Backbone:
């Protein structure tokens, strides 16, 4: 392990760069991480490709385009590679658009929940005492609540949820785990000499938090973001599946709802399979990335790994 | 003694949390657009019909009074009348709750047991191709989208192969005929239970397996395992009687932590399988704006989650000799 | 030791598993005479006054009976609990009805007292939905045990066609409940929430067992008055000893059950997508029946921009009803050109404006463009360019010089009714062709009704009446200015003194031909002003399993009616085939 004392700016930079390279190597070595990244690239491509079909022909518009000749659910053909839904819309272009929506929902709501979680975690650990106790109790409470059902209940406030409301609602119920981890990290950071030094040097609280604590907890926050992405995608899909999604958005959960509610479950396996596969594999890919990153970031796990390597 | 104090402390906490949830629900349903009457109203009612209902439901009282009344009614076990069914909510809940508890507890316990058992074996073969395959496979299982896999298993096992009934909890014909006894009914329920159970287990087992596996790997390095080996016990004995019981503790914790997640999954499973449970009723109530039923269903689900958390904590403390609160 | 015990447990488990496989797999060899009917959702209640959902009403319609009902062929009124057609006395504006010798399910006779009690109950409690139909009945008198006389405060056309087809409830069961309810602070709510676990009726069946969440079991009422009686040339049964209502929450499962002989009839409209599969199956038969339904797009005509009839007519031109029917309803619907469905032959008016029927898309856009430009609407870039071809327009500018603000087409959510939600999206795209900034906005049904019916906070919406009564009185209700108030039926806020006068007159017209003349005029006014654009009237698609029962009676709205229930007969498989051929 490298020495952790910092002697100069230059050295610190190179240290960080080395850490990064180190991390990447570890990550690259990791089978699970590799699979995750590959899958993710596929989904990224899908999301990018989703802009193409509507330009080829208006009938490939995922929401409003219908095939002029087909007005029923039809199996895959040369014209519709994955078939059409019950009113003649192209399933492939819906699937591609779904990837875009999943990324949008996953990343934006994970980002918001990370911001909330990190802030609460740092604040709780930094000021401690009453505030800490209160915030953590609150986090516990939110954590034990089944978020999907809570969001369902909250949907009565809105009549119909829009995709952005869903994003924010998911974020609001997904921060506690992040807050807990960041809090414990901050607590251990608080014991480090450089924080004391900064305080003695007269740095303000804000400066200490943003300059000294935040950069150090950021990797952990990023790690948790990948896990939040998976849960955000799942919650959105489940909401849409139950009929509480944004009706103007073509998401994978929405597609599943259409199959289910229009009664094509037994008749159209070509329509039932793709959206579910996509949801499952996308969450899998983020989850795998997260696990791989966890091993890189968490020295305790790395030790296990190294020990395993040594033993092998 | 200490355990008792821990239980006491946690119970108080649960009460406070529950009170907060109660209040939250009250506020939520008063902010909700559409007075509760809008559900009872349909296109064929006249405005006079509607007015009479609003007046009779007592919705014109001050909010504070309504809140106190709500709390009082709650502690008396009076959750109001469902708009949809026109029956006391408590009646509906008490019909649905057993079905949920049957499915939910069976699934959780089975999944945890299967996870522990498989994880134990896999950890013993660590590093091999079997380990890698099972690890990736269980990762895949634990991220499967539950409603989809439920639909898929209905499509395959119930529709294609025809081993299981398509949905529901009982076959009415069996229950209507007077000459069939208890066992026929019990097996009928069991037959309906299997497929949802299988679905829930597929998704939940993977996660528990992975936790058990890594926990086993940690435990193996502990001193007492080395001692056990040194005593000349067989590998199997070491694994089953020394390593596994201790390694299973994190699984219990994670059962507690993932309860909320499992409840979501339970509600989805119930909906897809038309299992007449409380989660399905909640989803149904929300989409019908049946506020009293939605509120009460949620309260009971929250209560089940909180109590189950407490039980898991107690179990953990009881099983792990190192932990004393 | 431990291992041995475990092994034993394991063996036990295997044994139990085998046991239930053997027992559970048998398709519950139910008794031959049990009619199994599938429902989509569980009935809400067995309290007739609360029952507003179709499923409760289906079950209760087999228990409670009305004085008169509709003939399945002619749709004319036929005496049911009544012995003959009512006698009208113009002097006192009263109707006299003689009752049959019918009995309640406990064996006591149905008397004039029960009828008087029912009417009084509705009027005293002002029971929602029923009160407005009995409001004008000033007095109900039991002349003798089997004769009732209704005194009306004024002549009302709907008395015969709507009021007299309401159910009669037994005094012996309801009087104590009503009394108890009246002593509470909230009598109406107490009445609606009263628990009636076994409603006593005079119909062919009574409830035997209701297992909430699973099934409802009805058995034969031995005292049913219609047994072996011939009404409307039909000999009534019922022939099935019992009825088992099974609850299927998804149509998929129910359809499969039909094909696999697990249910005899699925009492729920089927999506067109299932038809081919059902027709191809030798066990099932599909019934297509006309419906009396109205699915329409409505405008808020209280304020701009849709207060201008020109823009509403332009929208009528843009909406391609045939496309909607072809695409969204897979052809199983009829386009509507009036508020009164054309299937309702007596009341439907002919020769109404048909707004672009049969036109191509670009012709429709041009026609609408012409209408709007004449009405003073302008565009920076018009939808039709100087060369006369259709282009993508800029936002429309209203006659007052303001560009039109974004507005929503409110629809029910897709899981409530996929057809209407999809229509919203399609119409949104059509309106954009003319620079009308529309966006479809599906929302939950309760919130939707509240915005439209109570708060009048909307511009346009798509709604429907799944079961429009045969009597066209709704025309008056929908568009009379007196009903333009929060919660009122006139959701559009349409106000037209000429229409009001015609409507008032038609409500009092006792002579059918005179009333028909007035109703035709009313339809003409509405279709010229189009506060509602009628879209489609779906076909009722239903399916039965032919292996065990036959002789379903088809009438408007399908085969799920009291006639069918009284007429279906158990069949051997061979006999069922013969009937089919």
Residues:
């Amino acid at each position: 392990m490298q020495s952790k004392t910092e002697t100069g700016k230059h050295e610190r930079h190179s240290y960080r760069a080395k850490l990064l390279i180190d991390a990447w190597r570890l990550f690259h070595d990791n089978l699970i991480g590799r699979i995750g990244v590959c899958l993710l690239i596929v989904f990224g491509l899908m999301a990018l490709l989703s802009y193409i079909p509507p330009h080829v022909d208006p009938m490939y518009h995922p929401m409003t385009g219908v095939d002029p000749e087909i007005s029923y659910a039809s199996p895959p053909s040369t014209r519709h590679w994955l078939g059409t839904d019950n009113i003649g819309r192209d399933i492939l272009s819906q699937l591609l658009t779904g990837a875009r929506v999943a990324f949008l929902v996953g990343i934006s709501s994970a980002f918001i929940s990370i911001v909330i979680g990190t802030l609460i975690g740092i604040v709780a650990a930094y000021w401690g005492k009453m505030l800490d106790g209160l915030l953590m109790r609150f986090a516990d409470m939110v954590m034990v609540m089944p978020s999907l059902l809570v969001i369902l209940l909250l949907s009565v406030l809105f009549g119909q949820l829009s995709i952005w409301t869903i994003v924010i609602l998911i974020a609001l119920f997904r921060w506690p785990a992040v807050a807990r981890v960041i809090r414990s990290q901050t607590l251990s950071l608080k014991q480090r000499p450089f924080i004391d030094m900064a305080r003695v040097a007269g740095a303000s609280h804000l400066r200490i938090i943003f300059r000294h604590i935040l950069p150090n907890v950021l990797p952990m926050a990023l790690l948790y973001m990948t896990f939040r992405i998976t849960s955000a995608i799942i919650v959105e899909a489940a909401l849409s599946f139950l009929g509480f999604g944004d009706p103007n958005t073509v998401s994978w959960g929405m597609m599943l709802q259409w199959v289910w509610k229009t009664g094509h479950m037994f008749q159209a396996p070509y329509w039932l399979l793709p959206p579910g596969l996509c949801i499952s594999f996308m969450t899998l890919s983020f989850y795998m990335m997260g696990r791989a990153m966890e091993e890189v970031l968490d020295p305790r796990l790395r030790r296990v790994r190294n020990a395993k390597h040594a033993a092998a | 003694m200490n355990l008792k104090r821990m239980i006491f402390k946690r119970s108080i906490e649960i009460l406070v949390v529950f009170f907060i949830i109660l209040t939250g629900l009250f506020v939520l349903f008063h902010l909700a657009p559409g007075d509760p009457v809008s559900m009872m109203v349909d296109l064929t009612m006249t405005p006079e019909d509607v007015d009479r209902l609003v007046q009779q439901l007592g919705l014109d009282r001050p909010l504070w009074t309504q809140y106190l009344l709500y709390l009082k009614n709650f502690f008396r076990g009076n959750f109001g009348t469902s708009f949809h069914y026109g029956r006391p909510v408590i009646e509906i809940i008490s019909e649905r709750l057993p079905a949920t508890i049957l499915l939910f507890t069976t699934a959780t316990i089975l999944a945890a047991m299967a996870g522990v058992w498989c994880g134990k074996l896999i950890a013993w073969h660590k590093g091999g191709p079997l380990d890698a395959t099972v690890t990736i496979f269980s990762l895949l299982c634990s991220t499967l989208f539950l409603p989809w896999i439920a639909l898929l298993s209905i499509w395959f096992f119930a529709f294609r192969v025809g081993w299981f009934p398509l949905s529901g909890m009982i076959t009415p014909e069996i229950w209507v005929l007077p000459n069939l006894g208890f066992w026929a009914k019990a097996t009928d329920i069991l037959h309906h239970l299997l497929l949802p159970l299988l679905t829930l287990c597929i998704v939940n087992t993977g996660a528990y397996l992975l936790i058990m596996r890594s926990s086993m790997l940690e435990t193996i390095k502990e001193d007492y395992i080395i001692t056990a080996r040194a005593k000349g016990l067989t590998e199997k004995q070491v694994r089953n009687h020394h390593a596994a019981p201790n390694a299973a503790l994190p699984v219990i914790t994670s059962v507690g932590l993932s309860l909320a997640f499992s409840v979501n999954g339970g509600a989805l499973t119930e909906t897809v399988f038309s299992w007449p449970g409380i989660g399905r009723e909640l989803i149904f109530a929300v989409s019908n704006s049946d506020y009293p039923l939605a509120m009460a269903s949620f309260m009971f689900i929250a209560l089940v989650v909180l109590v189950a958390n407490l039980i898991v904590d107690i179990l953990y403390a009881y099983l792990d000799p190192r932990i004393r609160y | 030791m431990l291992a041995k015990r475990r092994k034993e447990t394991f063996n036990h488990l295997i044994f139990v598993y085998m046991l239930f496989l053997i027992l559970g797999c048998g398709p519950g060899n139910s008794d031959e005479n049990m009619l199994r009917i599938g429902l989509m959702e569980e009935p809400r209640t067995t309290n007739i006054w609360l029952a507003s959902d179709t499923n409760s009403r289906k079950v209760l319609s087999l228990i409670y009976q009305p004085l008169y009902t509709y003939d399945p062929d002619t749709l004319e009124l036929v005496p049911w609990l009544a012995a003959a057609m009512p006698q009208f006395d113009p002097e006192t504006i009263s109707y006299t009805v003689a009752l049959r010798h019918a009995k309640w399910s406990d064996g006591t006779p149905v008397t004039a007292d029960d009828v008087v009690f029912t009417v009084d109950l509705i009027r005293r409690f002002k029971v929602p939905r029923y009160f407005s139909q009995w409001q004008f009945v000033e007095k109900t008198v039991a002349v003798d045990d089997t004769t009732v006389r209704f005194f009306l405060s004024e002549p009302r056309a709907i008395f015969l066609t709507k009021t007299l087809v309401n159910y009669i409830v037994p005094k012996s069961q309801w009087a104590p409940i009503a009394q108890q309810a009246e002593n509470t602070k909230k009598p109406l709510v107490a009445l609606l929430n009263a628990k009636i676990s076994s409603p006593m009726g005079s119909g062919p069946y009574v409830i035997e067992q209701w297992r909430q969440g699973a099934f409802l079991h009805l058995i034969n009422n031995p005292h049913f008055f219609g047994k072996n009686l011939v009404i409307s040339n039909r000999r009534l049964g019922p022939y099935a000893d019992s009825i088992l209502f099974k609850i299927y929450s998804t149509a998929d499962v129910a359809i499969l059950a039909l094909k696999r002989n697990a249910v005899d009839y699925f009492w729920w409209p089927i999506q067109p997508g299932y038809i081919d599969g059902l027709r191809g199956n030798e066990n099932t038969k599909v019934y297509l029946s006309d419906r009396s339904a109205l699915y329409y797009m409505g405008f808020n005509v209280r304020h701009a921009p849709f207060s201008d009839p020109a823009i509403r007519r332009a929208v009528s031109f843009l909406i391609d009803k045939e496309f909607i029917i072809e695409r969204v309803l897979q052809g199983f619907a009829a386009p509507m050109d009036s508020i009164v469905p054309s299937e309702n032959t007596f009341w439907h008016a002919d020769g109404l404006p048909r707004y672009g029927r049969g036109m191509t898309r670009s012709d429709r856009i041009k026609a609408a463009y012409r209408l709007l430009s004449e009405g003073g609407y302008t565009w920076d870039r018009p939808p039709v360019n100087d060369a006369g071809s259709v282009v993508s327009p800029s936002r429309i500018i209203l006659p007052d010089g303001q560009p039109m603000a974004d507005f929503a087409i409110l629809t029910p959510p897709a899981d409530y009714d996929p057809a209407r939600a999809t229509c919203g999206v399609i119409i949104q795209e059509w309106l954009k062709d003319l620079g009308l900034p529309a966006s479809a906005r599906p929302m939950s049904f309760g919130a939707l009704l509240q915005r439209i019916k109570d708060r009048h906070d909307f511009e346009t919406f798509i709604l429907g009446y799944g079961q429009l009564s045969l009597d066209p009185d709704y025309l008056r209700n929908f568009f009379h200015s007196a009903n333009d108030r929060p919660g009122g039926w006139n959701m559009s806020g349409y106000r037209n003194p000429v229409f009001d006068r015609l409507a008032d007159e038609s409500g009092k017209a006792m002579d059918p031909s005179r009333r028909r003349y007035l109703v035709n005029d009313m339809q003409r006014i509405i279709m010229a002003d189009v506060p509602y654009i009628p879209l489609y009237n779906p076909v009722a698609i239903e399916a039965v399993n032919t292996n065990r029962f036959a002789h379903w009676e088809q009438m408007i709205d399908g085969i799920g009616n009291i006639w069918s229930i009284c007429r279906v007969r158990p069949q051997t498989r061979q006999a069922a085939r013969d009937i089919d051929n």
